[in-house]
Each structure stands twice: as C-alpha cells, then as structure tokens.
UniProtKB/TrEMBL annotation:
Localization: Membrane
GO molecular function, one term: protein C-terminal S-isoprenylcysteine carboxyl O-methyltransferase activity
The protein's name in its UniProt record: Isoprenylcysteine carboxylmethyltransferase family protein
Top-rank taxon, per record: Bacteria
Chief location: membrane
UniProt cross-references to Pfam families, sorted A to Z: ICMT
Species per Swiss-Prot/TrEMBL record: Mucilaginibacter corticis
Membrane topology value: Multi-pass membrane protein
Lineage: Bacteria, Pseudomonadati, Bacteroidota, Sphingobacteriia, Sphingobacteriales
Ranges that cross the membrane: 42-63, 69-88, 122-155
GO cellular component terms listed in the entry, alphabetical order: membrane
GO terms, biological process: methylation
Ranges in coiled-coil conformation: none
Length: 187
C-alpha cells in the first residue's frame, strides 16, 4: 500500500476524534436532538469498511492495474475532501455538531458552500472515504468501503433533513428545491 493511505487515514481519524470530543451537542442545549443513532451507524460503517477494505488490499484481491496512479488520484481527492469538509464546518461555526441536534440559536445556513450543496461537510467526508478506498489500490476494497459507507451517510442525511424540516419548515423545503443534497446537479 501507498504511504498516503496511512497518512490520510491517520489525519482523518485524528480530525474526526477531535470533532467527536469538541463538537458534540450538550445535553439541554439543544431543543431538537434527533440523531436516531445515525452517528453510531455511520462510524460502524466507516471503521468496519475501512478495516475490511484494508485487509482485502493487503491480501491483494482484485488490485487496480495502475495502482500508483489510482493512489495519486486518491491523495488529490483527499485534499479536496478535507478542504470542503473543514470549510463547511468552519462556515457553520457553533451550529456544527457531530450529532444531529438543533440549538435554540440555530439559523438555516444557505450561503458559502451551503449555497452549492445542502450537506457540504458530508460531501467532504464522502470524498475522504473515497480517497482512502482508492489509496487501498483494490477495486474490491473500493466497493467494500464506499457502498456501505454511502448507504449509512444517506441514512444520516435523511435523519438530519427531517430535523431541519421540523425546525425550519417551508424555508428548508424551499432550500431543498434550489440546492442539491450532496452532489451539484446530480443528487
């Protein structure tokens, strides 16, 4: 495996642990906590699939023909993913939490990256996950890492959007009509 795989996985893991410690909603500070275990499901999918994908890559099942090129593409995708994810987190500021929760000070964010997609931090997250899968240099690893993680992420987005509709009603519904969920022009 390429050294960038380990570097990306370590940076990703460390950054997400920091987010888990620092950006959780506080009990009683949120007027709507609706996580529905989506954070747990997402992290089980991410950690389990990356571990399984890594094992598949180590034993060499179904490798990419030009592994070096694929790993270099993965590194580029990781950099873009980290930039998108952290820009989205910084743009939300205090409103960003790792669990689905809406505080009494929460405002609907529709500017910056949120003008392009409704969930830019998840777009960045998915790009980072895809980059880790690509850096494993195995087609089967990519399938094992990306598909289950994407399914868990879609569940999480649905949970979050229900909470946002409850909180912001027609304003959020109008926002969904003009802004893509995750990928501009596609989804």
């Amino acid at each position: 495996m390429h050294i960038s795989y380990y570097q990306i996985a370590e940076i990703f893991g460390l950054s997400e642990i920091i987010l888990l410690l620092v950006k959780r909603s506080r009990k009683g500070s949120s007027k709507n906590q609706a996580d529905n275990r989506s954070l747990i499901y997402l992290w089980i999918a991410i950690t389990g699939c990356i571990a399984l994908g890594g094992y598949i890559a180590i034993i060499g099942i179904w490798p990419f023909p030009d592994a070096r090129l694929v790993m270099d593409i993965g590194l580029a995708v990781a950099i873009i993913g980290f930039i998108i994810r952290w820009t989205a987190i910084l743009q939300l500021g205090k409103m960003f939490t790792v669990d689905v929760a809406i505080s009494s000070q929460h405002k609907l964010k529709t500017t910056g990256l949120y003008k392009i997609v409704r969930h830019p931090s998840y777009l960045g997250l998915m790009m980072i996950i895809c980059s880790i899968a690509l850096c494993q240099a195995s087609i089967l690893s990519c399938i094992v890492v990306i598909i289950p993680t994407f399914i868990a992420l879609i569940y999480r987005i649905q949970v979050e959007e229900k909470a946002l509709i409850i909180e912001f009603g027609a304003d959020y519904i109008q926002y969904t009509k003009t802004t893509a969920r995750l990928i501009p022009g596609i989804y």
